[in-house]
Design goal:
By secondary structure, the chain is an alpha/beta fold. The protein has a single domain, classed as 3-Layer(aba) Sandwich (Rossmann fold). It is 36% helix and 25% strand. It is built from 10 helices and 10 strands. It has helices spanning 2-11, 60-67, 90-96, 113-118, 125-134, 150-163, 180-195, 207-213, 231-234, 238-245, and strands spanning 20-31, 34-45, 49-53, 75-80, 83-84, 98-100, 168-172, 199-203, 216-221, 224-229. The chain has a 6-stranded mixed sheet, sandwiched between helices. A hairpin with a 2-residue loop joins strand 1 (20-31) and strand 2. Helix 5 (125-134) packs across helix 6 (150-163). The longest helix has 16 residues, at 180-195. The protein is globular and about 50 Å long. The structure holds adenosine-5'-triphosphate (ATP) and magnesium ion. The site of adenosine-5'-triphosphate (ATP) has 12 residues, from strand 2 and helix 2. Residues 60-61, 103 line the site of magnesium ion (MG).
Length: 247
């Protein structure tokens, strides 16, 4: 098993980053005839904001589901620091330190903010307030989550992910359906999380947002990594533009 990693490092196909937190190597996942993830290799640097972008159906959420243990890969390996987490059940992966949010909100609207947070972890009011402060959500714990705006509910989900002990925060389209003001706020929130030592893996469609916030961008297309690089290089890449806009 170890040799796979060695081969990958010397072959040049897999750019091993010394400082990587998560490594995803040659991962494949098909649903019937659909190759959702088709041999993906990438790494996420420790204490970075790394964005996973690509057209609809590129395989982004499937990668998140594989990383978080909701979907088992057909092939490949995933490592979090020195531990291999490939195929582990979701709760083990959560315990290992991957904390995620979902593309569609999973907030319980008829429950209080406190109870929504307690789903993640048994925590004190102080810990919960501190998690809310990290996402700039200054609301009472007793408030019903349904009284929050949609954007604030998305922030609550991030607070829930932050509250859990984690090494990696994986956020699936946190800005989707969120108003421009909270969208701007989210940039500051993510930067603040990074400053506190967090590593963020982000799925995002808003290019302006991605280019503004990311240390590294990974472009997926049809289940494969099309490009990987700094935002300023990705934004002017011909192949990337073609993948998005067509030739
Ligand atoms: N559980 C599933 N069963 C069957 N097909 C699936 C399943 N999950 C994903 N797919 C298919 O795999 C491909 C990748 O889907 P995925 O949701 O990962 O894309 P995505 O990049 O997150 O897209 P979007 O930007 O629209 O959220 C799509 O063709 C999708 O229809
Ligand atoms: Mg998706």
């Amino acid at each position: 098993m170890l040799s796979l990693w060695k081969v990958s490092k010397t072959s040049g196909v897999f750019e091993h980053t010394k400082n990587s937190l998560l490594e995803f190597f040659s991962v494949c996942k098909s649903f019937g005839g659909v190759k959702a993830v088709d041999g993906c290799t990438f790494s996420v640097g420790n204490n970075t904001i790394t964005s996973l972008i690509g057209p609809n159906g590129a395989g982004k959420t499937t990668i998140f589901n594989i990383i978080s243990g909701l979907t088992k890969p057909d092939y490949g390996k995933i490592k979090l620091l020195d531990s291999e987490i490939t195929g582990l059940p979701a709760y083990k992966i959560a315990q290992a330190g991957i904390s995620r949010t979902f593309q569609l909100t999973k907030v319980f609207r008829n429950m209080t903010i406190r109870d929504n947070l307690l789903i993640a972890k048994k925590a004190s009011d102080g810990e919960m307030k501190s998690a809310l402060a990290r996402v700039h959500l200054h609301k009472p714990l007793d408030m019903a989550a349904g009284e929050l705006s949609y954007g604030q509910q998305r922030l609550l989900e991030i607070a829930r992910a932050v509250l859990r002990e984690h090494k990696l925060l994986a956020l699936d389209e946190p800005t989707a359906g969120v108003n421009p003001q909270i969208r701007q706020e989210l940039k500051a929130i993510l930067r603040g999380l990074k400053e506190k030592g967090n590593t963020v893996l982000l799925i995002e469609h808003d290019m302006e947002f991605v280019m503004n916030i990311s240390d590294e961008v990974i472009v997926l297309n049809e289940g494969r990594v099309l490009k990987r690089g700094k935002p300023q290089d990705i934004v002017k890449d011909k192949e990337v533009l073609e993948a998005y806009l067509g030739k």
